[in-house]
Amino acid sequence: MSYTRQDVIVSRDCPAVTVPYGSPVTIEKGCEATITQQLGGTYTVLVQGNMYRVEGVDGDALGFEATEAVVHRHEGPVTAQAIEDAAWSMLATCYDPEIPVDIVALGLVYSCTVTPLSEDQYRVEVQMTLTAPGCGMGTMIADEARDKILNIHGVEEAKVDLVWDPPWSREMISEPARLQLGLL
């Protein structure tokens, strides 16, 4: 994980999405990009004054090793508690591309419920919100959370709903995250 800005030359056409709107774009080969955030398996880059998010699978275009989704395997039996613990751990690897704090520490995740489907298969349902209701990245962040939860051994189904009640406020940010953001 890195917060240090780094300038790179994009080595190939690279799929990305605009931040904060979430529109798909292609960053062209040869462009200079400044990496502003490298967290949770994604990159936030500035190109010609515009901010974009690049997925880890395309990290090679930025000079890094491309990364695939990580399957989370836990020690011991597959239980509802083990799945819930793993789900919270995976949610803590999801980041808003504009804020270097994970969605759990930001207080965006309101609930994580695990329901057994069979002896060793589970469904995980998450309710989360965003720092601003109009954020175009909301669906992308929720999809990332769902995809990461689906990579937990024993999870058969995952659903992540964006909710607006209660409205998010700065008071929901964890104390360590507030300290990191300079809000204390």
Structural shape:
globular
CATH structural architecture of the largest domain:
2-Layer Sandwich
Poorly predicted parts: none
Structural class: alpha+beta
- Please, what is the CATH homologous superfamily of the largest domain? Fe-S cluster assembly (FSCA)
Rg over CA atoms? 17 Å
List the total number of helices: 3
Kindly give the count of domains: 2
What attributes characterize this protein structure?
alpha+beta, SH3 type barrels, GMP Synthetase, Chain A, domain 3, 2 domains, six-stranded antiparallel beta sheet, three-stranded mixed beta sheet, 3 helices, about 15% helix
Structural notes for this entry:
This protein has 3 helices and 9 strands, in the order E-E-E-E-E-E-H-E-E-H-E-H. The chain is of the alpha+beta class. The protein has 2 domains: 6-62, SH3 type barrels; 80-180, 2-Layer Sandwich (GMP Synthetase, Chain A, domain 3), CATH 3.30.300.130. The strands form 2 sheets. Strands 1-4-5-6-2-3 form a 6-stranded antiparallel β-sheet, with no helix packed on it. A 3-stranded mixed β-sheet has the order 7-8-9. The longest helix is centred in the last third of the chain and has 13 residues, at 138-150. The chain is globular, with a radius of gyration of 17 Å. The two termini are 23 Å apart.
